[in-house]
Amino acid sequence: MLALALVAGTAGCSSGLSGSSGAGSSGKTTITVAGMPATTSPKTRQQFLDAVAAFEKANPKIKVKPTDTQWDARTFAARLAGGNAETVLTVPLTEPPGLIARKQIADLGAELEALPHSGDLDPRALAPATAADGRVFGLPVTEYALGLVYNRDLFTKAGLDPDKPPTTWDEVRTAAKKISDTGVTGYTQMTVKNTGGWILTAMTYGFGGSMEKKVGDTYVPALLDGPAEKALGQLAAMRWQDDSMGNNHLRTQQDAERDFAAGKIGMMISTVNSYNRYITQYSGKPADFGMAALPQQNGGRSTLLGGLMAVVSAKATPAQRTAAVKWIDYFYLKPAYDPAAAEEQAVAQAADKLAVGLPTLPFYSAAVSDPVNVAIGRHTNIPTGNFAPYVAGVGKLEYQVEPPVAAQELYGALDTAVQAVLTRKDADPRAELAKAADRLGPVVEKAQAP
């Protein structure tokens, strides 16, 4: 069963030193924490600051210094290695495996056992930050399964049923052609800043494959095993045979979301939380937004699991580590197990005109999460029926985590392959994947070196 979503704070890095500020002359333990909402969401930001004040009042020996800078794949590793990141970091699910291997984040096992409802945490929610030996190095902030976002109005205009969106890639292709025949882009693919590789990875999961596989004790690229080639071939066919993907094939996520909200795109792969940006940043019409589960093909039964994990810098002192996990529990986990805390967040987010009630993956067992869903449901402000195909479909799929080794580098290499296939009619999907595999092999090997 899916849970109802509240909007988590944004991930970030700041100039605060993660391990340099421990117990000061006042006897307090000081921690820096990422995740303060931006100034563009004043009520939610104030709620965050109020939460900091309430946390400090309940824990008078802890001082919290929040930051609101954004996580950036291009600078994160250097900032963390240089000690210029927070004590508490919120990172995409791609990051914990590498951070664990490089010993840059702390084992939180002992602290986790002391948390309320720790025994009710869903192992799937902990999996992205769980090492091979079972040790836990992070706690969930938000987790989601990628799906197909589509414009219900464009579906209707193309003679398609908006309540029965595509469930296979063959159906996506057919729908995209019908939509493009009305004069707009039927389907679009993000292709730059690692988004091309990210979405192609999700497609590959839907085709029954993976991007990395284990050979002995080592992960290697699996780009030439078949499913990735079929997924990329699907895009080539839609682009060059059907001409259903429009003319812009170097889209950022922002480009795609803006044009989708403007009614210029019929379908794309995206996240549940993209609905927030659709409403708040791009002024899309709520009634037009539809979402379905990730389409499948050739026996595939999986979707890509994404989201954010809260981790603690390995440079934190034992006192900072304990304080950090207390903060993670208070701000991120408590609204997932405490109905009163969940409702308080829902009220603030609704006041900021943020989406309340989006379907997401639960952190806890149904006995814990169901009362929370009831509390959030009292403040739902989204067209819930538009997400019904997603809720029904994603419950039948397996959740496949992002590639375990050098995921961002993999995504970047695959950007080039996707761009080539969509911009050059003579580009061969297998040849482009082979180039990416050659580029990735040494990177994946180095990332696993002792």
Automatic annotation (TrEMBL):
Annotated keywords: Signal, Transport
SUPFAM superfamilies: Periplasmic binding protein-like II (SSF53850)
InterPro entries: Bact_solute-bd_prot1, SBP, SBP_1_CS
Any one of the GO BP annotations: transmembrane transport
Family named by the database record: Belongs to the bacterial solute-binding protein 1 family.
Protein name per the record: Sugar ABC transporter substrate-binding protein
Organism: Embleya scabrispora
